Amino acid sequence: MFTYKKENQLPIKSWIPEKDYYADGKMVEQVENLAQLPFAFHHISQMSDGHVGYGMPIGGVMAAKGVVVPNAVGVDIGCGMCAVRTSLTEIDTETIKKIFGGSKDYHGGIRSCIPVGFNHHSKRQDESLMPERPDWWADDFYTVQKEYQSALTQIGTLGGGNHFIEIQKGSDGHIWIMVHSGSRNLGFKVAKHYNEIAIKINEKYFSQVPKEWELAFL
């Protein structure tokens, strides 16, 4: 980890090695934009998985005083992450190939049964698999309510990019299944909704934050 500070900016702590940090100029620009925000607190951190995001870099960490920045929360809000321990303690390569499928030798399996990226199920899935909804949720969660029926087609699907399904051997000796599903468009819609509100408010009250930084706040 190294730390640096420019004039009239908060300190920046980077967990990306210094020799690699400056290779991505756009990411560095986004980090340094954060360090100039009037509501940013104490310092800005950049984790080792850093790359360009919407306004705020992926892996960026910022404490904000008195405001919420929708793009800092990110379009991956509600991104699913889960690790499940199986009863297995061993699994052979051929079995793994069969589970994942998608090759000329193995048909079916994860690759052919689970929609990935922009794909989704053609029919709504079992609603009982969704989290229980409190009585008041429709009034307070407009975007989720609006997208709920579409979300039913996303149950059991997998995001593109850095999302994954893995079979792992745990330190406890058991075989684990780890899933990083993504928020399956719902997170994007929620973030977009509140970012658009933030942009209008910032324009109305002549925010100091440049619009091109994509860091409108509520």
TrEMBL record:
Signal peptide location: none
Claim: Acetylation is one of the keywords in the record: no
Any single biological process term in GO: DNA repair
Keyword terms: GTP-binding, Ligase, Manganese, Metal-binding, Nucleotide-binding
EC number(s) recorded for this UniProt protein: 6.5.1.8
Gene3D superfamilies for this protein: tRNA-splicing ligase RtcB
Single GO molecular function: DNA ligase activity
Catalysed reactions listed for this entry: a 3'-end 3'-phospho-ribonucleotide-RNA + a 5'-end dephospho-ribonucleoside-RNA + GTP = a ribonucleotidyl-ribonucleotide-RNA + GMP + diphosphate
Cofactors required: Mn(2+)
SUPFAM superfamilies: Hypothetical protein PH1602
Pfam families: RtcB
Leading EC class: ligase
Name of the protein in its database record: 3'-phosphate/5'-hydroxy nucleic acid ligase
Organism of this sequence: marine sediment metagenome
